[in-house]
Amino acid sequence: MTFGKRLTLLTLCFAVLVAQVDMAVVNLATRPIGAYFQAEVGALQWMLDAYNLVYAVLLLTGGLLADLYGRRRIFMIGVAIFTAASLLCAAAPSIGVLIAGRALAGLGAALSVPASLAIIRVVWRDEAERGHALGIWAGCNGLAMAIGPTVGGLLIGNFGWRSIFLVVVPFGLAALALARPSIPESSDPQGRSFDTPAQALGALALGGLALAAIESHGAPIVGATAFVAAVIALALFLRVEARSGPGALVPLDIFRASAFRAAIVGTTGMTFGMYGVLFLLPLTWQSAGTLSAIHAGLALMPMALVFVVLSPFSGWLRERLGSRTVTAGGVAVIGLGLLTVALGADHASIVFDEVGLVLTGLGMGIATGPLMAAAVGAVEPARSGTASALINVARMAGATIGVAVLGAVYALAGGGADGLRLAMLLGGGVQIACAASAWLSMRGRRDRLRSSGKVASYEST
Predict the structure, then answer these.
(1) What is the DSSP string of 346-394?
(2) Less Cβ around it within 10 Å: N or C end of the chain?
């Protein structure tokens, strides 16, 4: 990899770290923020959820804007908005302003994250180099998970809650300073335009899904209504897109690529299990008095550390073992992790939990980069922004549905060991089913390429 490409990757990683560290540390600050503003629980919940909701609603828009008006331009606008939003949050005089700042940060992330993945697709044309770059890019997510809670706790304890928003500002400024000299501009409108009906319906579908997850526990009727609205909006969205043809916001023929479908299914399954276990394990530990909040955070570290260490090598593994093996195999390993947690649900020791978390981190490290590579590599560079947005939609949808479904199963089973066991058995089963689906889809593509004599060019699968 040349020095120029290394600088490009560093710039993109700065932006990813900014977004992911911010998400990882804000949860820790809810109590001091609530005490400072004398805010009620509902307001604190929206401080967390405003980011997720705006991010979900505008993901497709961010991907399209990158393709239409320039990927570097949209990336820089997104990073600038996120950095400004962080400053607004740090200086917020009221809980209302803080919620607005978090919503603005969600807008910045919706623009910068899909654009960063699209830039990797355009800059790294060689499949092997792109796989390596995506492994490092994916590893930044795990690095944020690993360092976020620790750094956030230290900052809050020593400098107050405002410091967690200020700490990301230098990284955002660095990404902005490096972006223009290190990232080549690219855009591919190809006759597409800002399709307002599709944008509105896509936003309603994604926003409804996110709102359903947000309200599923505290206001189940609102959550169910939002879910139904999301399904209706999705059906209408697909109808509008089918009529729009190649100029659609999401051209439906993109799903004809079996590798792309496999990446969508595998990514959805991966985050379904990952976020499910991240949600339920600390809840179970703290409810049973097994671990305090601080110790629960430390107990989650092995998963993030394994993810960080392995991700940079996922491209190397993909070249040697093939896309099908690392994507489907990685998701299956996550399933084994969840099943291991289920096996140890009755044990007083957390040994089974830790083994399950290590397996989950191992599967994520193996699969995340190759799943991103399969998604953006299955489409022409002109569609890289759209493909990047869709794979991030899959990540968001899997996390949202995983927390909602597995959380509901946990609650229906009475919580505790019984609830954890049942939820993890279901989660593990979903992982393995998604892994099987990805395996079959990847195999189908290879068989077709073999029949046309092109198998040798298919990314060492």
Answers:
(1) T-SSSHHHHHHHHHHHHHHHHHHHHHHHHHHHTS-GGGHHHHHHHHHHH
(2) N
Contacts of 191 (CB under 8 A, 6+ apart): 246, 247
256-283: pLDDT as tens digits:
888 888 888 899 888 888 888 887 888 7
Q: What are the structure tokens assigned to 176, written together?
A: 């902005």
Q: Which of 233, 242, 270, 249 is nearest to 401 (CA)?
A: 270
Rounded CA separation 354/303 (Å): 8
Domains of the chain, earliest start first: 1-180 (1.20.1250.20), 250-450 (1.20.1250.20)
Task: Calculate ∠ Cα 341-342-344, nearest 5°.
Answer: 65
For residues 207 and 215, what is the distance between their CA atoms, to the nearest angstrom?
12
| Cα separation, 428 vs 442, whole angstroms | 21
**Region of residue 416 (phi > 0: left; psi between -120 and 50: alpha; otherwise: beta):** left
For the record, the structure tokens of 143 come out as: 């690095």
Q: What's the DSSP call for residue 290?
A: S
Instruction: Outline where 160-300 has alpha helix (H).
Output: 163-166, 169-182, 196-215, 220-244, 258-287, 293-299
pTM for the full predicted model: 0.77
pLDDT score of 302: 86
